[in-house]
Amino acid sequence: MNVLITGMNGTVAPVLADVFRSHHYDITAWDRSVVSTTDPAIMEAFIDRVQPDLLLHIGMGSAEFAETLARLSFERNIPFLFTSTASVYADDQIGPHDPTVAPAATDEYGAYKRTCERLIQAVNPDAYIVRIGWQIGQAAGSNNMIDYLERHAVTGPIPASTQWYPSCAFLEDTAQTLYTIVTTYTPGLYLANGNSNHSFFEIVTALNTLHGSKWQITEDNRMTRDDRMTDARVAIRPISERLSFVH
Length: 247
Fold this sequence. Notes:
The protein is 34% helix and 18% strand. It is an alpha/beta fold.
């Protein structure tokens, strides 16, 4: 079995690829320095040469790139998964959000992901679209929460709000959940969030303990929002199983 995957230089795709390898899948990376993401004929020829059993669009790229991948997958009966984001919800949409809540983000990134979702659904009714939250990695160096904390610690104490409830999960748990969804669930829209009830302040305080208390965390409640997502169909390991929270 062969998986064609975009985003192998990013945060989620390499970890997801490792999960598939552990289940004896072969991985083919979409190397955009070699294979076009804008020429549909070249994209089609590449997919036909690779003949993947699954196509996972984890990387960035234009909304038209996502649309073409979804269409080509549908035409070839290849299961297609796209990772979207909790950022599709607008700042004034108060979570927890379930799959019935229509996203309304108008900022550049949120609107981009909303457009991707819409275009994909129009050309591939069998697509898997999974909205994920902020990923918690093990170290800095990619777009994850630890990287954020390391960068902000350079300039001093890290402000964290007790009034902000982010959607988030450990990277390995998100990868396992994506694998489970695309290999065992029926196609559709899913929300994957491992944080049921903890504030950003509580999360980063627990992460600080886990990583040797090397950061200075200060309570700063200027950020007041609830970005949590909830989906009873999705089983994802809660962050509380990896972090020790003080109550």
